[in-house]
TrEMBL record:
Keyword Membrane: yes
Residue ranges of the TM segments: 123-148, 169-188, 208-229, 250-276, 296-314, 326-348
Name of this chain's protein: Uncharacterized protein
Species this protein is from: Periconia digitata
Key words, A-Z: Membrane, Transmembrane, Transmembrane helix
Length: 355
């Protein structure tokens, strides 16, 4: 267990992640949506540019405070999932698919044998990120991971403390598949706009649903055998194979989504993934709402995956190795997309750190 002194020693340099989160908060400008615009769900429907309207669900979780909070969040997804901001739709499709890999890694980090709160409870910050923006809260997670997690080291005790509980990781992987990945195609391509809106609700709170499934499966597994690994791999080679087996499907999905964008997106990638200036920063109407939301989601993606690469490199002790890994991340991002790239680079670092 890390001493308070060692935590403080790690916290001081890691505070750069807090500064990056604050920068994201400034650029994403979430307060403008709260204070300058009418409450998105106040009218009870989502208006489209062609005059059509989609009714906003009033109840989904049947828990009034939750429905009240996430009702406006679902409206924020409307320009992309309902298709009336076609440029942002391409960016968000990539971003949404990639988020699954990031959360899978959060879950794996929380299953290291020597880790404690708050890293062991990834659902908390991930849920805040759904409400307040991943670009703001994900850097905070990386900060907490550095301070309260298990640093990379070659001693036997350190390697043991960093070992991920593989049987539990398989349960989390199942949860990520069911509650994160399954809703995404329906959010973007369900036949009707009402169905897309429903699936947007279904995707909300996915970290909480995954956690509930995790404890449910563990409870069932304690009574009856389930077709999941029940014991920790006995060799490092098998340990690494399990990590690769769990991550490969999600990495391939992210790479496939990125390839689809590269080959079929009708807009320049600079338009899709680079935040464009607002036409008028002093106007607060439906048109500028869509513009601002597009910029916010682009910054969201930048800070989620930019800080993720920095965090992966954080514990690389050898400068040359760190430079090589950074270049791998950049090149893989261009080829396979940010989610697939970060998944691959994290696995490489894990393999090097654990032996």
């Amino acid at each position: 267990m890390a001493t308070q002194t060692s935590k403080l020693r790690r916290a001081l340099p890691a505070s750069i992640f807090l500064a990056l989160g604050a920068t994201a908060a400034y650029l994403m400008d979430m307060t403008t949506f709260v204070f300058k615009y009418e409450q998105p769900s106040a009218s009870g429907f989502i208006s489209h540019g062609n005059g059509d309207k989609t009714a906003i669900l009033r109840s989904f979780h049947w828990i009034s405070p939750l429905d009240e909070v996430f009702r406006d969040v679902t409206v924020g997804f409307a320009p992309t999932t309902l298709g009336y901001d076609l440029i942002s739709r391409w960016q968000m499709f990539s971003f949404m698919v990639d988020i699954g890999i990031m959360y899978q890694i959060h879950a794996f980090e929380g299953l290291r044998k020597g880790v404690g709160m708050p890293v062991s409870t990834p659902a908390f910050l991930a849920t805040l990120a759904q409400v307040g923006g991943g670009g703001i809260f994900v850097p905070i997670y990386w900060f907490l991971n550095i301070v309260f997690g298990v640093p990379v080291g070659k001693s036997k005790a350190n390697v043991e403390a960093r070992t991920i509980d593989i049987p539990k990781a398989w349960i989390y992987t199942l949860g990520v598949l069911v509650f994160h990945y399954v809703p995404i195609p329906y959010m973007f391509a369900a036949p009707s706009l009402d169905e897309r809106h429903w699936w947007t609700w279904a995707w909300q709170l996915y970290p909480v649903r995954i956690t509930m499934l995790y404890y449910f499966v563990r409870a069932i597994g304690s009574v009856i055998p389930l077709p999941l690994p029940r014991s920790q791999p006995t060799s490092r080679k098998n340990y690494q194979k399990h990590l690769l087996w769990m991550m490969s499907p999600f990495i391939l999905m992210s790479a496939a989504a990125w390839s689809y964008i590269l080959f079929f997106c009708p807009y320049p990638l600079s338009t899709v993934f680079w935040a464009q200036p607002l036409s008028d920063a002093n106007v607060f109407n439906t048109g500028t709402f869509n513009e601002r939301m597009r910029r916010t989601l682009i910054f969201d993606q930048w800070f989620c995956f930019g800080t993720m690469l920095l965090w992966i490199l954080w514990n690389v002790k050898n400068l040359g190795q760190g430079v090589i890994m950074a270049l791998q991340g950049v090149v893989l991002t261009a080829i396979a997309g940010p989610g697939a790239a970060m998944g691959i680079v994290w696995w490489i670092r894990e393999r090097q750190a654990m032996g």
